[in-house]
C-alpha cells in the first residue's frame, strides 16, 4: 500500500472512484496514478458495486449524487459484504446528510468543491486506518466483557459466539477506547487518533460512530454499560 509519507508503494493501493462528473473522475485518476495508486472508475452505482466485487479496491471514493441510485444505497450495498474504507465526495453540505452517510457506513466525508491535497490526505488516512498494525506485545490482548470479546491481535469482535462486523473506522475507535480501558479519552484525542491530525471539532463523527458501536455491542444501547459518554469531554470504555 501507499506509505503515509507518500512514497512509492511496493504493492499499489487500488482506489475505486465513483462519480458521474467526467472532469472530476479524470482529475482524480490522474492525481492518484501520479502518486503511485492504481485507480478504477465508475459513473453509476450499479457499475460501482460490480467493480468493487471484481476488482476488490483498498478504498472507495464515492459521490452521493449518482444517476441510477443514491450513493447511500451504494454504501449500504458495500457494507453488506466488505469493510473497505469509503470516502464520500459530495456537493451535499447539510449535517443531516453527512450523518446519514456516516451512519450508513462511510468512513469520511468531503464536500465539493474540494482541494485535491486535502482529499488525498484524507484518503491516505482512511487507508492507514484499514491497514493491519504490526504485532506488538500488547497486541496479543483479548478483552472480555459479559456481552462481547475483543481480540486486538486478530482484529476481531465476537458476541454470543458470532463475529460482529465492524467498519475500519468503527474498529479503530473501539481499539483506541479498549487500549485505554477505564480512562477518559477526550473528544479531540479520539478524533485525531481515528480520523487524523487535521480533525478536532467534528464531534458529530464521534456521536455517529459511538451510536453504531453501541447498537452492535451493547445489550441495551440506550443505556450503555461499556461505552460511556462523559458529556462535553469524551468517552470511556468500561469492562
Automatic annotation (TrEMBL):
GO molecular function terms listed in the Swiss-Prot or TrEMBL record: cis-regulatory region sequence-specific DNA binding; identical protein binding; phosphorelay response regulator activity
Modification sites for 4-aspartylphosphate: 63
UniProt domain OmpR/PhoB-type: residue ranges: 140-239
GO cellular component annotations of the record: cytosol; protein-DNA complex
Entry keyword annotation includes Cytoplasm: yes
Source organism superkingdom: Bacteria
A Pfam family of this chain: Response_reg
Stored InterPro entries: CheY-like_superfamily, OmpR/PhoB-type_DNA-bd, Sig_transdc_resp-reg_receiver, WalR-like, WH-like_DNA-bd_sf
Example GO BP: positive regulation of DNA-templated transcription
Subcellular location, record wording: Cytoplasm
Annotated DNA-binding residue span(s): 140-239
Main subcellular location of this protein, as a coarse class: cytoplasm
Keywords assigned by UniProt, alphabetized: Cytoplasm, DNA-binding, Phosphoprotein, Transcription, Transcription regulation, Two-component regulatory system
Protein name (record): Transcriptional regulatory protein KdpE
Role this protein plays: Member of the two-component regulatory system KdpD/KdpE involved in the regulation of the kdp operon. Upon phosphorylation by KdpD, functions as a transcription regulator by direct binding to promoter regions of target genes to positively regulate their expression.
Signal peptide limits: none
Sequence ranges assigned to domain Response regulatory in this UniProt record: 14-127
